Amino acid sequence: MKVLVVGSGGREHALCWKLAQSPKLERLYCAPGNAGIAGMAQCVSIGSDDFTALSDFAVSEGIGLTVIGPEVPLVAGLADRLRERGLAVFGPSKAAAQIEGSKAFAKTFMNKYGIPTAAFGVYNKYKDAALALGDCTYPVVVKASGLAAGKGVIICATRPEANEAVKNILLDRRFGEAGSAVVIEEHLEGEEASILVLTDGRGYFCLPASQDHKRLLDGDQGPNTGGMGAYAPTPVINSFLQASIEQEVLKPTLAGMEAEGALFTGCLYIGVILTKSGPRVLEYNCRFGDPETQAVLPLFDGDLLDAFLATVEGRIAGMKPAINPGAAVCVVVASGGYPATYQKGKPITGLDQVPDGVTVFHAGTALAEGQVVTDGGRVLGVTARADNLKSAVELAYRGVEAIRFEGMTYRRDIARKALK
After folding, report:
1. Burial class of residue 246, CB neighbours in 10 A (0-12, 13-18, 19+)
2. How far apart are CA 410 and CA 211, in angstroms?
3. Measured distance CA(261)–CA(267) in Å, rounded
């Protein structure tokens, strides 16, 4: 089978890496891809926002399955456009993808279907939001409702801070159209976890729970980013909690989406926080997480292409893919200045010097005169799998130490809390 992966980041590199291991794969394409993906797939110079060119390419090349990586084309309806051309797609419809595309929709949906989450309010006028801040207990969380690349969540310790955040989102449009509405919700305390679910809308298969590290600096300090590293499995999710989340969150979510006329197929990401009152949903994503995917897929010992086809064909409930009993760690190496301004085009060395057992997933790279160079904020995801978490952490950081480029930065405490 010919497969097309849409996207250009570390998540897409990890998806290509795992799909390339399938005996069912005939040929793998990625649009547009990156310097790392080019080593295992034919990269096609089509952007993920060019729906016409993507669908024309898939039809002309006889693509048997298209896998859509990023959230933006999913929320904009790429899966629908491809299905209209008679193509098989791994990824939700535009209607289903709004579970990530609109936090206002997601929160209202959770409230409607009794899914545990933080108390909240949704506002599209600054005066209303500013007035509501007077009734809040601090700290409070202010979120841009739309897509903001993981940076639209602001934790505010005081009312002035919250008012400034609301102003930045609704009036100054710091996040563009993503700030057409704002969600103000209670701040929850507890450990966080990410659960990736392969689903055909009714049946499902849960991948090992992971934990992301959103803040830029060690000790969970600094600004929010798209994610500075992840590890799996996370010990904060035991079998009891896993069963509880499936019963109280996952099943009602799938049933609720079907009741809304938006059957969810593809990968459903559930971000949970473990409070003293039990698990609460922080957010949904309509696709694989990044960098969680880079830490989870190395533990998946099944045929990923077959699993994706099972979601398309409505048979995922009957699948029991093998999961490796070890652990995996992904350390994100970023450009200096990220998540604010940063330079591109810095030559990267040492990619061929990483130790055995380390896989380097390219997130923001390009080729310039035969040299791999930086081409984004998050540049690489250095990933290791080992028999246990301690060994995986040590191996991943040995991989990081082999790599060099000007201004490179990374956290040195990925999975440290779990090791404690």
Report:
1. middle
2. 17
3. 18
Helical residues (DSSP H) of 70-189, grouped into ranges: 71-76, 78-84, 94-101, 103-112, 126-132, 159-166
CB 334 within 8 A of CB 377: yes
d(CA 249, CA 269): 12
- Region of residue 229 (left: phi > 0; alpha: psi -120 to 50; beta: else): left
245-286 tens-digit pLDDT = 999 999 999 999 999 999 999 999 999 999 999 999 999 999
Strand 27-32 versus strand 42-43 pairing type: parallel
What size, in residues, is the chain? 420
Domains (range + CATH), the chain: 2-93 (3.40.50.20), 125-180 (3.30.1490), 191-318 (3.30.470.20), 327-419 (3.90.600.10)
First-to-last C-alpha distance (Å) of the chain = 45
Return the structure tokens found at 232.
């799996």
Which amino acid, one-letter code, is at 285? N
CA distance 177 to 266: 26
At 379, phi and psi to the nearest 5? -100, -50
Give, for 419, the enclosing helix (H) or strand (E).
helix 416-419
Residue appearing with tokens 């459903």: 268
CA distance 365 to 34: 6
Instruction: Tell me the pLDDT tens digit for each residue of 12-52.
Output: 999 999 999 999 999 999 999 999 999 999 999 999 999 99
